[in-house]
Specification:
globular; about 300 residues; D-Maltodextrin-Binding Protein, domain 2; two-stranded antiparallel sheet; alpha/beta; ten-stranded mixed β-sheet
Length: about 300
């Protein structure tokens, strides 16, 4: 899944590291050549849209735009990343445009339920707990993956007493690391020191500068971060706990079926795989778009 970078992008990342700031938002080579640029409306999918969405002509999307390579901001402030390209293609299949609204990660689902956003689209892991408040249209499989400083020997299954950096409110911060830390204490060992940051860039930076022993994030994010500062950090084992990403919609909304049909159309015509392959994240591709995979399987 590791994204190939230009020499200039790696050099820029190294320069930022020296000033204490790692920027994980550099796009892959040929980023402007978007696959599937000419997307035809899928009439069957469009017919499933709720009337109010069709009449509005666009999807209001809540996104925490700081999780490269999935979603991040370009220099002009606009949203970019493989998930953004996929979201734009999905909307095009429905005859809609997209409007991405920056939001703190933990505020997106409440805003979907409150009607501020039509969808929450920010690398959400579909979990049974989250499905109690929203429905998820599943579009990708991602695991958890750790990184370490080069030459270190970190075992994600035996991290007691270590400091692990993580982006706040992600699955890794709320579920994975607390569970592992509790297991450490139950075994009479030192707990894991969970070093939380508002952005993934800060979590990566903490590891690169030695403030943390390891970092935990979703597999495409960890692999991309390692590629950005490959002279400082490396992967610490393979991905594990592979689970689906989902687009959050209000519970029981008809919009879920429309999004599912649009994404399946992209899978069937090859656009979906073109986009993932372009960004180097095709290992997480799925053949069938589902709804609420965490509880329905």
């Amino acid at each position: 899944m590791r994204t190939r970078l230009t020499v200039a992008a790696i050099a820029a990342a190294s320069a930022l590291l020296l000033t204490g700031c790692v920027d994980n938002s550099a796009p892959p080579t040929d980023n402007n050549a978007a696959p599937g640029a000419e997307i035809q409306v899928d009439q069957a999918a469009e017919a499933l849209l709720p009337d109010e969405i069709r009449e509005a002509g666009k999807l209001m999307i809540g996104m925490d735009i700081g999780y490269a390579p999935n979603e991040f901001k370009k220099e002009d402030g606009s949203a970019d990343g493989w998930a953004v390209e996929l979201g734009n293609a999905m909307a095009a299949k429905l005859g809609l445009t997209t409007e991405y609204q920056q939001s703190a990660f933990d505020r997106i689902i409440p805003a979907v339920n409150g009607g501020t956003f039509d969808i929450g689209y920010s690398s959400f892991t579909d979990t049974a707990e989250r499905e109690q408040s929203v429905d998820f249209v599943n579009y990708y499989n991602a695991g958890v993956q750790w990184a370490q400083q080069i030459g270190k020997a970190v075992n994600p299954d035996d991290a007691c007493g270590l400091t692990v950096s993580v982006q706040a409110t992600t699955y890794e911060e709320t579920e994975e690391l607390p569970a592992k830390s509790a297991a450490c204490e139950a075994a009479g060992k030192e707990p894991i020191n969970i070093l939380k940051f508002e952005s993934q860039d800060e979590a990566t930076n903490a590891l690169a500068l030695g403030r943390a022993d390891a970092m935990s994030a979703d597999s495409p994010i960890t692999q991309y971060a390692v590629a950005q500062v490959s002279d400082k950090i490396e992967l610490a084992g393979d991905a594990f706990e592979v689970a689906p990403y989902g687009i959050a919609v209000a519970k029981g909304s008809e919009l879920a079926a429309a999004l599912q049909a649009a994404l399946q159309s992209l899978v069937d015509d090859g656009t979906y795989m073109d986009i993932l392959t372009k960004w180097g994240v095709q290992d997480g591709a799925i053949d069938e778009i589902t709804i609420n995979a965490a509880t329905k399987g």
